[in-house]
Amino acid sequence: MIPRVIIAAVAAALASAGALSAAPEVVNLGPRGFDLFWVGEGSVPAQVEVFADAEGQSPLGGISAPGWYPLAVGDPALTPSPAEREYRRLLRERTRDFGQRLVRVGSLRPDTSYYFRVTDASLPGGVYPESGFAEVRTQSAADLLSEALQVVVRFPGLLVDGAVATLRADGMAAELAAVVGDPHPGEAWFNLADLVDALTGRAPQPAGPFPFTLRLHQPGSDVEVADGVVDFTGMFTVARHSEIPFAGVAPLVAYFEFAPIEGQKAGLPFTVSLTARNADGSLAEDFAGTVALTSEAGIISGASTASFVGGVIANHPVVLADTGTHVLRAVHPPSGASGVSNAFSVSTDYASWLEAWFDPEDRDDPDIAGLGADPLRAGVANLERYGFALGGGFPDRSRLPAPGVEPGGDEDYLTLSFRRQAIAPDILYLVEGGYSPGSWSVVEVVLPGEPAWVTVRDSVPMRSAERRFLRASLVHRETYAYWRLIAFAEQDWRQDGTLPENDFGGLGLDNLTRYAFGLDPHDPDPAGLPQMDLVENDGEWRARTRFTRLAAALDLHYVVESSADGQTWQTVTTVHPGLPRLVTVEDTEPSNPASPRQIRVRPVFAPF
Prior knowledge:
By secondary structure, the chain is mainly beta. The chain has five domains: 7-245, Immunoglobulin-like, CATH 2.60.40; 255-347, Immunoglobulin-like (Sandwich); 351-385, no CATH class; 401-477, Immunoglobulin-like; 530-605, Immunoglobulin-like (Sandwich). The chain is built from eight helices and 37 strands. The strands form eleven sheets. The protein has a four-stranded antiparallel β-sheet with strand order 1-2-5-4. Strands 3, 6, 7 and 8 form a four-stranded antiparallel β-sheet that branches. Strand 23 (329-332) and strand 24 form a beta hairpin. The longest helix has 16 residues, at 82-97. The two termini are 70 Å apart.
């Protein structure tokens, strides 16, 4: 059986001036269309289907398809300008964010039944009606009205633009609904000619005082009710309007002010403080509500604050997900009050990433927290999870490098798209190409930055006779690979002269040694190499070396060796990068000053 939302039933449902029911209600019922109104949740999607038949086989489309958040039903003299169109767009967004659903179905036939169904997870049962479709019958053909009056309701002191207001009158079949702020801020316009008499199905022709009830559906709070009256003179009038102030509750807050926010680290908590302000800038000390925080950085935790105390909330913890330059926004849906913080940077580095995602006892374990470790056995190393912003949990593979093809006229090019960190000073992205997975040449070096998604095109076109490969890898700052790309020009590192074993420029010093001891890659100073001497201790002489190590290098250690003949070497100790940078090591064997033992430092690559 089809529920009938016909005129008499609608009139009965609207007899109460209390809060709007959870079910969608028919408003603005006329001969050529009707609106539906209900309150849901702003972030929950909803769908309205309207049919010309009771079985739901003939959906309405085209100009009769349901339209969301209709506006421009107020001041007939208003001609939209670009600025006014943008204002209306923002007003629609505000109504949507309030969770107030308003849907228009137009271009219908008079005195005809139509059938609708609403799907909305925020409704009881998720659908209305629970089965079948609800019926609504349009008004009979419009009559010539002697008086076409409008009521303009003003909401002094209330920040409710975007909220829906409704007007009902005794004996009328359906309420009228209007969006506050359409077409002017702080106003709602109602055309009384759109009312439908519940008995006749036609527009009423009142004479004398005409009482009505206004309801303001404030988001997140109870419905505010006020009574009004307008006088019908019985004389022919077109578009005369009567202004009525709404006797509502004054707002407890006008806007929010953030304390300045400094640069932060992605994934790590920081605190924000907010103050509630009145319209004149004074402290809204009676405000004790909560606010919602949003940011394009993505909020991991702290999206909802605790209650304000004395109009202030201090040191509210927030954790943001993504790097970049961002702001925080605060909004109090019941009042519409909002505020925006200053712009601040959100950066990251590998140590901060570990701190955000790993327990303290795991951060020093290289099998868990090392750059090359894969503690979740997901096939993605920590460095990739960090650099491609895959998160600390199971990796979001949608952000991993993905291949594509870019048309290039007569030839196509292979591309690679990936997500990078916006601010991460310890990494860069190396895109390489080759004709086999074992032979790679540099295509492009990409630094962290914005936009987040980057697409790199191969340096050579695709050819049908040859297979082509592209890969993107992360290069950490504290590695030879990073030093090589920064130290040498592009035309140099595209060739073999910058590999660790090469002697770039033929200066008699391999590149690995220049890297390991922090020398200038193009003009290495021999004074920066390890120095050797003999030192006496209690009458015993020993060979000694002093050298400057790197403070932080992930792919290197220093092997100190000694020899009596310069042919056979034995390890004295192994030194790792760290602080202090100046290191002194003595030989473990005594030395004869007449024929002293030799000592040397050999930098060795170490896996990470």
